Amino acid sequence: MDTKRDIAAETIWAGELTDDELERARRGLIERNFGKGAYICHRGDRLSYWTGVISGIAKISAISREGKAMTFAGTAAGSWFGEGSVLKDEPRKYDIVALRETRLAMMPRATFMWLFENSVGFNRFLVRQLNERMGQFIATIEYDRILTPKERVARNLSWFFNPVLYPSVSREVEISQEELALLVGLSRPVVNRSLKELEEEGLIRVAHGRIIALDHQALTTYEA
Q: What ranges make up the beta strands (E) of the chain?
């Protein structure tokens, strides 16, 4: 079985490419595996790959000079990230940590830049991706500053049901309460309590190792 070929064909951006462009992308992809808690990239490192999650979950975060931790996003299966740093050819301004066993597809900068310079479809995808990611980062800063813990849990959870950033997620996301707590930046007991209340309100259903969204729109705009 041609694993690279299968991975490329299943990506959210594959449908935007011509057959020749997709074949070029296939030839460039490599795979890497990371254990739970492993750093995929440290802040200040050069990671010259555009990166997609085949399976698992990773956290994109940074720590300020004052020691405050800030989580920008979680990345679940089907999501791709790091296009901004690859485009600018600069060191990463954040840490990337695997929250569980995580398998990544990685496209080297040379392949990425060839697609960027030659593929209209790839550029259409990048514009959508960058627009959604910018909205996510801005919202995350807002959540951290003005929302209550339960509101933060609800709205951060809602991002996993964004079809552009997380195309493999439909109505449910495979994530533990411990992993969600790490992403939201709250303690596990606070997240547990918030999830129970959201479940009582009929917005989600919590199962073992996964959360089902019953009202995604309500999570997106949730106010306690």
A: 30-34, 39-41, 49-55, 58-63, 69-75, 80-81, 95-98, 102-108, 172-174, 204-207, 210-213
